[in-house]
Every structure is written in structure tokens, then in C-alpha cells.
């Protein structure tokens, strides 16, 4: 069964979308493999390239939220105060989230490759690890929450947007879906603090 095709209300690029795209692009640049300096030797190049998998995984996460916002903007075309505030909130969270995201991805790839993929960030205690995972998961929860709030706002504007019942239902369902995904962030926070050290690292 095909999903119904809904109208595109945001056909023209707005200043808000342009600003959001630029902010996401800057966040992606901050994830760059070697942002400080170009490798000056073969050894430095190999070390820098070890960050490529973590960079790709981090970019994929950033892309998910960029695409979610772009798809929402294209579908609803809203640019009121609530939309602006939620979009600014999304941008602010993305800019803060970049470093925990990159650190977690580097640490994850280093852990699962037994150190073959180098991680520059060193965690010296279980407490530090738990705090880092909490920051990462809280950021994920809040980002998903903002996307859910955008869909909730669009649903509240369903009469002004002349939504048919099927589109109003789909909009509400999309917002709820993002809330469900957001709950995984809270679940991870609970697990990392409640599980013993031997299990918490997973």
C-alpha cells in the first residue's frame, strides 16, 4: 500500500531554511576528519584517515536531522514565530551536539575494532563514560523532540493549512513516531547509569 502524496506547501526556499542549511553545513564541517591542519606525512595521513568511519557515521546522524527538517519545511511551508523558535532550537542543539557525537562515534569504532581505529578522546573513568553517553543521548532525545514539536505545530495548524483528515492523521503520526525514537535516548541514559561496568560499555 502506497503512502498518500501530500501537497508541497514550501516550494520556495525561505530565509529560515537557508539559515538552517548553512548551520547544518557548518556543523558538518566541524566533523571533518582533520579540521586543524592538512597531514604533512604519510603517517599523519593514515592516522587522519582512521577517523573516516566515525566521520561518515556522524555525518549520517546529522543528515537524518537535516533531512527531517528539510522534508518538514518542504511539506508545510510554515515560517511563523513558533517555527522560527523551534528551528533556532534545532540549530543550537546541532551545534552543541557535534562534539559529543564525534567523540562517541570515534570511541565506538575504537572499541569495536580493539583500538585499530584510533580515538583521540580519552575516557579515564566509568563516571566520565557515563556522563559522555548521557550528553550524547540527551542531545539525541532533544533533537528528536524538536522534530516532533515541529510536526505537532503543523498538526495544530491543520485548519489553516487546509489539511484533509488523512494528512492530519499522518502529521500527528509522524510527530508521535519522532517522540518514540526520542525515548531511546532516555532509555540509553537509564541503562548506562543502572547497568554494571561490565555491561554499561555496550
Overview of this structure, please?
It is built from 7 helices and no strands. α1 (15-30) runs antiparallel to α3 (52-76) and α4 packs antiparallel against α5 (126-156). With 202 residues, the chain is mostly helical. The model has no long low-confidence stretch (mean pLDDT 88). The longest helix has 32 residues, at 81-112. It is globular.
Order of helices and strands: HHHHHHH
What is the CA-atom radius of gyration, in angstroms?
20 Å
Please bin the fraction of helical residues: over 70%
Poorly predicted residue ranges: none
Q: Please indicate the percent range of residues in DSSP E strands (runs of 2 or more).
A: under 5%
Mean pLDDT: 88
Question: What would you call the structural class?
Answer: mainly alpha
How many helices? The count is 7
Please sum up the structure shown:
With 202 residues, the protein is mostly helical. It has 7 helices and no strands.
SSE map:
Elements: H1 15-30, H2 42-49, H3 52-76, H4 81-112, H5 126-156, H6 165-194, H7 197-200
What key attributes describe this structure?
0% strand; 7 helices; 202 residues; mainly alpha
Amino acid at each position: 500500500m502506497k503512502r498518500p502524496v501530500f501537497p508541497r506547501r514550501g516550494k520556495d526556499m525561505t530565509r529560515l531554511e537557508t539559515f538552517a542549511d548553512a548551520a547544518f553545513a557548518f556543523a558538518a564541517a566541524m566533523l571533518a576528519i582533520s579540521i586543524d591542519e592538512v597531514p604533512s606525512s604519510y603517517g599523519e595521513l593514515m592516522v587522519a584517515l582512521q577517523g573516516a568511519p566515525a566521520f561518515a557515521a556522524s555525518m549520517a546522524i546529522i543528515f537524518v536531522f537535516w533531512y527531517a527538517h528539510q522534508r518538514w519545511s518542504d511539506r508545510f511551508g510554515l515560517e511563523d514565530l513558533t517555527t522560527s523558535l523551534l528551528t533556532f532550537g534545532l540549530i543550537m542543539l546541532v551545534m552543541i551536539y557535534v562534539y559529543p557525537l564525534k567523540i562517541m562515534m570515534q570511541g565506538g569504532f575504537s572499541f569495536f575494532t580493539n583500538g585499530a581505529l584510533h580515538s583521540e578522546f580519552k575516557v579515564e573513568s566509568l563516571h566520565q563514560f557515563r556522563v559522555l553517553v548521557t550528553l550524547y543521548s540527551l542531545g539525541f532525545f532533544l533533537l528528536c523532540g524538536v522534530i516532533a514539536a515541529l510536526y505537532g505545530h503543523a498538526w495544530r495548524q491543520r485548519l489553516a493549512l487546509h489539511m484533509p483528515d488523512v494528512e492530519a492523521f499522518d502529521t500527528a503520526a509522524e510527530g508521535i513516531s519522532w517522540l518514540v525514537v526520542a525515548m531511546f535516548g532516555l532509555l540509553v541514559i537509564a541503562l548506562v547509569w543502572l547497568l554494571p561496568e561490565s555491561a554499561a560499555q555496550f
